[in-house]
Each structure stands twice: as C-alpha cells, then as structure tokens.
Amino acid sequence: LQDEETRKDYDYMLDHPEEYYRHYYHYYSRRLAPKVDVRIVILVTVCAISVFQFFSWWSSYNEAINYLATVPKYRIQATEIARQQGLLNRTKEKGKNRRSKEEIREEEEEIIKDIIKNKIDIKGGYQKPKIYDILLFQILLAPFYLCKYIVWYCWWIYCFTIKGQEYGVEEKLYIIRRYMKMSQSQFDSLEDHQKETFLERQLWIRENYEVYKQEQEEELKKKMAMDPRWKRYRRWMRNEGPGRLTFIDD
C-alpha cells in the first residue's frame, strides 16, 4: 500500500465490499501492468525502424551500382576513366606480388564500381542514402522543417501573390511537380530533356497542364490498345472473364 493509487483502491474496497469483481479487476490490472516506460518503447521502435531503413536504402543503392556496372554504356566510360587515371595498370603486378586472374578481376570490378559511384548521380529511390532521411532524424528535425516551410510559404505569398513577380525556373518546376503529384525524389529522377519539355510547353499554367495530361492519357490508351498482352487480356475478359456465371449444363 505504498502507492497512492493502490491505497485509494484499498479504501474504496473497504467502503464498498459488495463490488467484488471490480476489486479483482483493479488489483490484477495494476499487478500485470507493464513496468517499462512507454517513451522508451517508442524510442526503441523508432530506432529499429531507422536502422532498417538505412540498411535497406544502402542495399538498394548497391544493387543500382551493380546493375550500372553491367550496362555497356557506363562500364565502357568507367573503364576508360580508370585507364586514364592508371588504376587498372596497378592491378597487373609481377614477381612475388603477382595475384591470380580472379583476384585481379575482382579488384578491377571494384575500381569500376567506385568510379561509377563518384561519376554518376543516382536519383530517385536508388540514390545514395543520407542519414538525415531516416525516420529518427526526420522526427527530430520536424520542428525545423515546419519553420522552414512556413518561412518559404510566406516568401512565396509575398513575392508571387502580393508583388506579382514572375516565376523562375525552380518555381515553375515546383508548380509542375505539384500538378503531377510527384515527390521530390520522383521528379528528380526524370531526365533533363523531360523537364525542358515541361518548361517549353509552359505546364506551370493549369490549362496547359490539363491539355498535356489529356494527351498523355490518350497516348497511354493507344499503347495499351497495341500491346499484345492487353489484347489477350481484353479477349479473355470478353470471352471468359473472372468467374463468369453461366446456365449451361456440364
């Protein structure tokens, strides 16, 4: 009875002995209540998710590097850079330091991958992971991001709504990305010529974007109409369909 809440329950039991089941409920609810602080549980969970995120992103990044190392376009360029820098010549040693062909091949492969990592900027979901992107740092930096967004939003209203300034290239691309409902990483993964096309067609203007969206939908429908797989699927849906009921006797 050292706990204040327990003493209150005890006094209530003495005053109301007829509430038999209620006393048992309060007793066992306190005895079986978890002793661990909920804040510690939340912190450990967030840390575990953050560690999983980081290693998962590293795995995706390494998969992208390994794939690019097999693409002839990037492999030839990386090999040429390695030769110019004299990195491949170092792998061919003689005498006591001579190594097997397998060891030389593995070292050359690592050199090519390192050059690809340094020369190619991978964007989107396979980009190089940053520690500030994991959940733990996102939660810690949430107040900073919120203040930054408020300042940016006020600046946007002041410059383009109140003063009526013309949009710059970055502002135009931002509006286009919002219309397309794409995240920043998704938009960054697009090719430069695609973004130039967006600017040439002035897609930051809502009417122009609606026309462009309609054109893309029509083009997608045409591709689907000409795709043999979609033709087979439509033929199957027309002739059989999923679980169609018939009254034909077997």
From TrEMBL:
Keyword annotations from UniProtKB, A to Z: Chaperone, Membrane, Transmembrane, Transmembrane helix
Protein name: DnaJ subfamily C member 25
Top-level taxon in the UniProt lineage: Eukaryota
Cellular component, GO annotation: endoplasmic reticulum membrane
Location in or out of the cell: Membrane
Organism from which the protein derives: Struthio camelus australis
InterPro entries: DNAJC25-like (IPR044632)
Transmembrane segments annotated in the record for this chain: 40-58, 135-158
One GO biological process term: protein folding
